[in-house]
UniProtKB/TrEMBL annotation:
<protein>
    <submittedName>
        <fullName>DUF1446 domain-containing protein</fullName>
    </submittedName>
</protein>
<feature type="domain" description="Acyclic terpene utilisation N-terminal">
    <location>
        <begin position="4"/>
        <end position="433"/>
    </location>
</feature>
<dbReference type="InterPro" id="IPR010839">
    <property type="entry name" value="AtuA_N"/>
</dbReference>
<dbReference type="Pfam" id="PF07287">
    <property type="entry name" value="AtuA"/>
</dbReference>
Amino acid sequence: MKRIRIGNGCGFWGDSVDAPINLVRDGHLDYLTLEYLAELTMSILALQKQRDPNAGFASDFIEVLSRLTPLLIQQPRLKIVTNAGGMNPMACALQAKAVLDKAGIRRRIFLVSGDDIFSKLEEILKDPSELKNLDTGHSLETIRSKVVSANTYLGAQPIARALESGADIVITGRVADASLTVGPAIAEFGWAMNDFDRLSAATVAGHLIECGAQATGGIWTHWQEAEPLDTIGYPIAEIDESGVFQISKPPHTGGAINLETISEQLLYEVGDPAAYLTPDVVSDFTSVLLKQLSRDVVQVSDARGKPATPFYKVSIAFRDGFSSGGTLVIPGARAAKRAGEILLARLRHAGFSYQRSYVEVLPGPTENSEAYLRVSVHDPNKAAVERFTREFAPLVTSGPQGVSGYTTGRAAVREVFAYWPALIRKELVEPKVEELQ
């Protein structure tokens, strides 16, 4: 029975830059997936693209690809699927090609785009029922002028089309995380889009490996039993054409794969385990059976699926004021709490109030032990937030006795990008697949 090995070497932008190299070197992979995008990441990339039309993608990928070139020469059949394209898949693809050209490597690079609907918002919002906030029901018009990015979560079909067309490297914008794995499975096994159980199986596989080392002992409840974590291996899903698969990791690596690590990851970021919604299928995680085959190898079977909904999820980021937070160390939890209250009171005396403020104290083991004070504010008025950052240092000489922990300077003022979850009818979105020439 045909099988494919898909290893995920990245769970987010900022994950280990060594993991993809180690995984390709020792994992005997058919596919390497690299998952870089979170909701916040897309807003950051949107701003980068506004400042520089050649930016707006996960630049770590270019470094990783450069380091992978010796292995790509040794493993010419290895394919890479990544959402590193972020807000600018074309710019990412051009830099990837430059890296390969420099190394004398020829690979066919395909792009998947069409997820970015920012330029179409005016047209879409002619129907006021579109893009309402999933949590509040509010119309997007209430914050339309503040929107910086709007991206749909595309599914696996355009990835599969790229691979079926001969892609060696597929660079996408926003796609559902699990679809990075589902796409290769569709392309390799020829599954139809109404083969819901097997699509669900690949979705479960993608969900289990999408966060990298979270499936191999990272942040596991009994993480001490996964030592050595300094050599933790990243996950591999070996999927057969029936949809049954095993999760493993490269030999002689740290970490652990067992029923607990897989179960914890299976339930990660899941609202309803009986109906995990993706663009490809509605997956039922409650039907899944786990079996420990051997040390660090767990078999997953019996996934069940239902037709996908007629909607794509949309991630919208909008400007939502400014925030800042500062910290001090003060002897005694009560003294620390009072210092925070004094700080905010002085700001009120100076004429500044805030949309939101928060005083938190992390106490020491005794009442008189040093306590950790953190005060934070959020407000649309940047000047008010900047003024807030100037009130920490005066506490050193005009607050409780023994204030310390102030040597790092004033806290930074950061612009806040808030998240607007929404849905959009699939017929309003046109995924695009193209080869980089």
